[in-house]
Design goal:
This protein is of the alpha/beta class. The protein has a single domain, classed as Phosphoglycerate mutase-like (Rossmann fold), CATH 3.40.50.1240. It is 43% helix and 14% strand. The chain has 7 helices and 5 strands, in the order βαβαβαααβααβ. A 5-stranded mixed sheet has the order 3-2-4-1-5. The chain is globular and about 50 Å long.
Length: 188
């Protein structure tokens, strides 16, 4: 039995270029348009269940996609929320980068970086990988195709899990909100 996962990232949130992390920010007008473009691309696919975090931007993106899938069930799972940037949350990235260029690169893309009161990629991977393990069991049991409305860093880690990427490859991934990845899993 072949089942599909449709993985995508929510759209634009703010022009402030800040560490958003756990700030519960909604999609901007641009982000809503990106979600609508994505929704049209996914409109002909079969989606039975949609997963998102408890963050409003992930929920808004999934809601746009599921407008074309009226019978799809929605499941909120906090394990796929964005990375917690701790004390950096809400601060402008450029200001931090100009003051601490070496630390910025390590915090921004380092898998095991020390984030004051926050999470690094390794921390986030524990919850995301747990979600993915449970997701496979759920899909097999329910025999369903799923959509996942993820965040920048949870999406990177889902791809690491699905594509067996190295930690370095995962942290360098970039995503356009109007696009999605499709994974077909063969459950025998």
């Amino acid at each position: 039995m072949e089942l599909a996962i449709y993985l995508f990232r929510h759209g634009h949130v703010t022009d402030k270029n800040i560490f958003c992390g756990w700030l519960d920010l909604p999609l901007s007008k641009k982000g809503i348009k990106e979600a609508q473009t994505l929704a049209k691309k996914l409109s002909k696919e079969k989606i039975d269940v949609g997963f998102c975090s408890d963050q409003i931007r992930g929920k808004q993106c999934l809601a746009e996609v599921l407008k074309y899938h009226k019978n799809a069930k929605v499941i909120v799972d906090v394990r796929i929320c964005e990375r917690n940037y701790g004390e950096l949350t809400g601060h402008k990235k450029e200001e931090f980068k100009s003051k601490f260029p070496k630390e910025y690169e390590e915090i921004h893309r380092g898998y095991n970086a020390n984030i004051p009161s926050g999470e690094n990629f390794s921390d986030v991977s524990k919850r995301v990988f747990s979600f993915m393990n449970d997701l496979f069991e759920f899909m097999q049991k329910e025999k369903c195709n799923v959509a996942i409305s993820a965040h920048t860093n949870s999406l990177r880690l889902i791809q690491e899990y699905m594509e067996n990427l190295s930690k370095e490859e995962a942290t360098k991934l970039e995503h356009k909100p109007e696009n999605y990845k499709k994974y077909v899993i063969n459950f025998e």
